């Protein structure tokens, strides 16, 4: 369980919070923030309450109060299960965070798992797995699904691999994926901390995973070292019109086509293909994405002269 409570543990404080939330829902952001601040005098160690105050103060146009509240969240929970550090970063003129905290991503998806597919697919029209699957061959050998979540990607390519394995940081997401009975193995791990080992893959897929990573150098390096020669890497990103990558108000990252293409080429990938597509909707808006595929390098062939010298 995360080291914070979604309720305060104090009935009076919870009632005040409910009233503050009602004010917020009615659009009276300043009054909601005032009441939430008053509520926290009763429960000053309530991490989720400080997070709520930060969001209410932001909506009310009170950045200093919001920053103070997010700072209190970080002080009470240094692992940052609620992503307050990203909120603070977005308040800077130029955000500097290059990745999300492990605790935030794990907590987010553990809590989201039961309603993930109904919300993402049903309400937001999420279609990245189908877009990727349409560009994959009928037989793909050994396949790794990075950030497999509830198994939507695995279900989209079921029966097309000789071995299908999924990695994800969320135990609850993996529990849902296991119920689909399409994976040969599921592993709980942080893909930012993967180490090169003996396993090699013919195909590695990452559907809407890089949007939680920011800087991609480490994961791209791991992928190129984990594919068989000529093996392929397929993934989606949110598209960014600027240079490099950027942290968005949604607390997801978007990446530019040039950044991704240059990074893949520098890592040795060949046959790099990048197209655009609508990946899902968010708040009624289409989310434009990049659909990327690339092949791992083949071993360099020896020239005849070199072969003769070695003979």
Describe the structure.
It is built from 13 helices and 9 strands. With 311 residues, it is an alpha/beta fold. The chain folds into 2 domains: 87 residues, Tetratricopeptide repeat domain (Serine Threonine Protein Phosphatase 5, Tetratricopeptide repeat); 184 residues, 3-Layer(aba) Sandwich (Rossmann fold). Strands 1, 2, 3, 4, 5, 6, 7, 8 and 9 form a 9-stranded mixed beta sheet that branches.
Helix and strand arrangement:
Elements: H1 11-25, H2 29-40, H3 47-59, H4 63-76, H5 84-90, H6 102-112, H7 116-123, H8 128-134, E1 142-146, H9 152-156, E2 163-168, H10 171-178, E3 185-188, E4 201-206, H11 217-226, E5 227-239, E6 245-247, E7 253-255, H12 257-266, E8 270-282, E9 285-295, H13 304-310
Parallel strand pairs: 1-2, 1-4, 2-3, 4-5, 5-7
Antiparallel strand pairs: 5-9, 6-7, 8-9
Helix pairs in contact: 1-2, 2-3, 3-4, 4-5
Number of helices: 13
Average pLDDT over all residues = 89
CATH homologous superfamily annotation of the largest domain: Vaccinia Virus protein VP39
Q: At CATH's second level, what is the architecture of the largest domain? A: 3-Layer(aba) Sandwich
Radius of gyration: 22 Å
The level 1 CATH classification of the largest domain is Alpha Beta
Low-confidence stretches: 302-311
User: What's the structural domain tally?
Assistant: 2
CATH topology of the largest domain: Rossmann fold
Structural class: alpha/beta
Termini distance?
A: 62 Å
Gross geometry: elongated
What proportion of the residues is helical, as a percent range? Answer: 40-55%
- What is the element string, with H for helices and E for strands? HHHHHHHHEHEHEEHEEEHEEH
Give the percentage of residues in beta strands.
15-25%
Largest beta-sheet characterization: 9 strands, mixed
Number of strands: 9
